[in-house]
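Q: Structure tokens for this one, please.
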Amino acid sequence: MSAGRIVPFENGPEYPGKLTLYVLVTCIVAAMGGLLFGYDIGISAGVTTMPSFLRKFFPSVYAGQQRNKSTNQYCQSDRETVTQFLSSLYLAALLASLVASTVTRRHGRKVSIIFSGLLFFAGALINGFAKALWMLIVGRILLGFGVGFANQSVPIYLSEMAPSKFRGALNIGFQLSITVGILVANVLNNFFAKIKGGWGWQLSLGGAMVPALIITVGSLVLPDTPISMIERGQTTEAKEKLRKIRGVDNVDQEFNDLVAASEASKLVEHPWRNLLKRKYRPHLTMAMLIPFFQQLTGLNVIIFYVPVLFNTIGFKTDASINFAVITGIVNVVATLVSIYGVDKWGRRFLFLEGGTQMLICQAVVAACVGSKFGNDGNLGNLPKGYAMVVVLFICIYVAGFAWSWGPLGWLVPSEIFPLEIRSAAQSINVSINMLSTYSFHIWCHLIKFGLFLFFAFFVFVMSIFVYFFLPETKNIPIEEMAQIWESHWYWSRFVQDIDVQ
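A: Here is the predicted structure, written as tokens:
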């Protein structure tokens, strides 16, 4: 096989079963875990543009805004302290995802999802009634713990519950919930920012209790996944649950494969150490590079700062938040496109098409912003024509992300890991995602308009990586995923002796 040839493997064994109403409702409820992450991204971006919030908790930043309203279009105030405060959530989520690995494996995916809702609720409650900065910090850390548990357990839960032919669509429900959370938060910010008396920020932050309650209450009625039940010795119950999930009585083939996977998993005493074995090289590579590349698309940074970005390039505050709502709508609609096409067109097609789309848009936005503001940003407001081009291409860019790297960044890692390393590898996936997000939030303000060129370069790099190194995973049962590596032109050299390692 030639080194540059990509051999798709799309026809794995088909287990009897169908998409039942039971599994559809179950996956919709579980996917609501994405609301936690999405709501926080959207609400935090808007709250930090509210003068009353800055005046109460970050008076130096507020004072800097008042002194310096128009001299520099890239950085109208010293926001590093705000950025560090907001980014602290990602460090908390990183730590929580590592703990969640053990909880998810030993006690089931459902328990981790319940923890995510409870922790997020506690953080939202403290933030909503915060009277001092330390309360905000404590609340934000708890929010991060909730996000870490949710992001570690929900994608695994969805991939294990869904039939292979519909796994992509059902798993992307998690990303859809993230985008809905962002949109709802942007809409609420738009209303709460106009409340007289300057207490709208309390409603924005306290409102996070609602998605926390949704996932907490919903998770109480969720069944655990059959493979998780088998891992904990509930074999008989797992087979009955599998029959109910698949809607057929004959589940022997799938059940036997799950039992075999569980038996192999029990032989692994140290999953973290096992990740370093040669046969898991492709899995570890994907667990690290896919979330890293997902953040290098720049979407989370740009969405997070859309109100600030639009305000910075000359829009009024209300208009900035309105444009954030527009990008939120685009995000949701494009994610629905991904749900429709991921199991029809495949993961690789969406990765490559979305990457091309984002690359073009980032280059155009960089050209528009850079040509008017240069490197020092002191050339006045962005002309209306340029501003409209920026808004248009940011929306097209958001759409490209929302049907490619956004949902697939969670889907693909959750479906490629074998059971014996699944929980640990997913924790690495989430940890790299959170660490990357934290890092980019901290220093992105230093790059100015070059930020878009920086991300464009890496979108090109990651698209090349996908083309040569990521095999197609659609329609392949999750416990049969080893075959995609055995037939791959590059990864086969690491896994071809999988049975003797």
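A few notes: The two ends are 24 Å apart (CA to CA). The longest helix spans residues 133-161.
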